[in-house]
Design a protein that fits this description.
A seven-stranded mixed β-sheet has the order 3-2-1-4-19-20-21. The chain has a four-stranded parallel β-sheet with strand order 10-11-12-13, with helices on one face. The protein has a three-stranded parallel β-sheet with strand order 5-8-9. It is 30% helix and 27% strand. A hairpin with a 2-residue loop joins strand 16 and strand 17. Helix 9 packs antiparallel against helix 10. The longest helix is centred in the first third of the chain and has 21 residues. With 381 residues, it is α/β, with parallel strands linked by helices. The protein has a single domain, classed as TIM Barrel (Alpha-Beta Barrel), CATH 3.20.20. The radius of gyration is 19 Å and the shape is globular. The structure holds zinc ion (ZN).
């Protein structure tokens, strides 16, 4: 058991308090409502539902890559994540999903504290980003988009790890595939799409009829935009009170004001992701994404034609960007923890509460990571 004191970010606000925990939080003693920011700031661990890589590793590298990226992002406050695949020949994608399954099996066998002691975030599934996307809206995805045929969908869900699947609603097999994924527990996330709002609504209806949850992949990027007469996928996302949406707040993908507008439309459904790639955390220069050359310069990763290619963002930086845009730490923290937990249906984490996993981020007054705790165990700094 350990007790830490500081300014604790609880669901109802920030309080001067102490938190006692083992693998789970056993007690929270609130002393008073925060008057001056007492350091450390204690936040619930961040949850990243869309992360390709970091620290030189990538989900497509297999199990070792997944462990390495989960270690890298843990040092930036991420205590739970979904390693994310990229559009590639199907055998490569399947192999990557099996790598994620291997890590999940190892983590389950080790139990919470044992794998946390290895300094890595909890892996709760994979985000299958591509290949079920529009070949004309690839963004930086390599050109291996395919239809989500029943055979491929069955192979994907058969790995047992697909927790989020990005899909373009206008594909011929999208509705049937969305039903299958939703029925098997995967969130269906609209993305890399040229769909109209009506096409999005049709797939959303299919997902919900199967008991599923609808999301949007990196809202605003690689999708049809909101216009006065054409609501597009962005309009469909903002108008749907139940749908969740991811957003990359590196200030290259989305303007801070655009982020605030989206947050005003869905304060309890918008969550922040990194979409980070292998190059994240490395010196700027040449890197790789899905077999393509990427150049990192000025904090942005781009293909040689200038297309943004994922990001080099970490979630602690996303928090600083949200607060820098005028949002309070308490509200921004929800977009990093409680909202993605709700999206994924994780009821044991996402907030600092008695009985929840002790996934905590200790930060300085200027929101720099001081210590990260995964299931009660500090990860190596
Ligand atoms: Zn991505």
């Amino acid at each position: 058991m350990r007790t830490i004191r500081g300014t604790v970010v609880l669901p109802g606000g920030a309080f001067e308090a102490s938190v006692t925990f083992g693998e789970r939080i056993t007690a929270i003693a609130v002393e008073r409502e925060m008057t001056s920011a007492k350091v450390p700031l204690i936040l619930p661990g961040f949850i990243d539902t869309h992360v390709h890589g970091g620290g030189g590793a990538d989900t497509m590298d297999g199990a070792a890559g997944v462990v390495a990226l989960a270690g890298f992002h843990a040092r930036h406050g991420v205590t739970t994540l979904l390693p994310t695949t990229i559009t590639n020949p199907w055998t490569n994608v399947l192999a990557a999903l099996r790598g994620v399954a291997e890590v999940m099996t190892e983590q389950a066998a080790a139990g919470g504290t044992a794998y946390a002691g290895a300094g890595v975030a909890s892996v709760v599934g994979a985000h299958l980003e591509g290949p079920f996307i529009n070949p004309h809206r690839l963004g930086a995805q390599p050109p291996h988009a395919v239809e989500p045929t029943p055979e491929l969908v069955e192979e994907a869900v058969g790995t047992g790890v697909v927790r989020v699947v990005t899909m373009a609603p206008e594909l011929e097999h999208a509705r049937a595939a969305a039903r299958t994924f939703a029925a098997r527990g995967a969130r269906v996330s609209v993305g890399h799409t040229n769909a109209t709002a009506a096409q999005v609504a049709a797939v959303a209806e299919a997902v919900r009829a199967a008991g599923g949850t609808v999301g949007f992949t990196h809202l605003f990027n690689a999708m049809t935009q909101l216009g006065s007469r054409e609501p597009g996928a962005v309009g469909a996302a903002l108008a749907d009170p139940e749908a969740f949406a991811e957003l990359i707040l590196d200030l290259h993908h989305v303007h801070a004001t655009t982020f605030l507008a989206a947050h005003a439309a869905k304060p309890d459904r918008l969550h922040l992701i990194t979409d980070a790639i292998r190059a994240c955390g490395l010196p700027e220069g040449l890197s790789e994404l899905g077999g393509q050359r990427v150049v990192v310069r000025g904090g942005a990763a781009r293909l040689e034609d200038g297309t943004l290619a994922g990001s080099v963002l970490t979630l602690d930086q996303a928090l600083r960007n949200a607060v820098g845009s005028g949002m309070s730490v308490v509200v921004a923290s929800r977009a990093l923890s409680a909202v993605p937990a709700a999206y994924l249906g994780l009821t044991d984490r996402g907030a600092i509460a008695v009985g929840a996993r002790a996934d905590l981020v200790l930060m300085s007054a200027d929101l720099r990571v001081l210590e990260v705790i995964v299931a009660g165990t500090p990860v190596a700094g």
